[in-house]
Amino acid sequence: MKHLVTIVLLCVAGSAACARSADREVRGEEIPANLRDQPTNQPKQRFDRTGELLESKTKLEGLPLPVDLGPEVVLNGAHVYKSRLPIDKLVRYFTKHLNPEEIQYVGRGARFKHATVADVEDGPPLNVSIAPAGSQTRVEIEIIRPPPENPVPESELMQRFEDEWRKGT
């Protein structure tokens, strides 16, 4: 019984301290540093009220990426992400943000070919693929760059290669 009384008193004191802190914030008073910015255990919000993925602040060539997409790895010029977000939500997200010349649905995933970013003028076209990868989803974004206007002649490239090869031996 003695322990029960102690627990009840601690709960009452704790709730009173929280109420005083909230009252201070409403009245515009300074909140002590030890009560400010307490870490919360609330998960990062990923979806809006309708269940659609939210945009992050990260953009790739004007394309806003969804929250919790990452980390990024660049492989052969393509930006590759792994995510635990549901694949159908990712497909729907990119469908809203891209204007592709062609969409291929592959299983539960999709490929957006030669897509432009909605609401972005003069951005480069993108190839975006979304596919299952084990228990995760893989999102690959390839930026399609135009060929150089004045390419280096093949003979010059061969000469550079031979010069580098000779230096290495």
Notes on the structure:
This protein has 169 residues and is α+β, with helices and mostly antiparallel strands. It is built from 3 helices and 9 strands. Strands 3, 4, 5, 6, 7, 8 and 9 form a 7-stranded antiparallel sheet that branches. Strand 7 and strand 8 form a beta hairpin. The model is unreliable at 3-27 (pLDDT under 50).
Share of helical residues = 25-40%
Spans of at least 5 consecutive residues with low confidence: 3-27
Secondary structure tally: strands = 9
Strand content: 25-35%
Q: Could you give a short account of the major beta sheet?
A: 7 strands, antiparallel
Q: What is the H-and-E element order? A: HEEEEHEEEEEH
Q: In DSSP terms, counting alpha (H) and pi (I) runs of 4 or more, how many helices?
A: 3
- The N- to C-terminal Cα distance equals 87 Å
Shape: elongated
Mean pLDDT over the residues: 80
Structural class: alpha+beta
What is the CA-atom radius of gyration, in angstroms? 27 Å
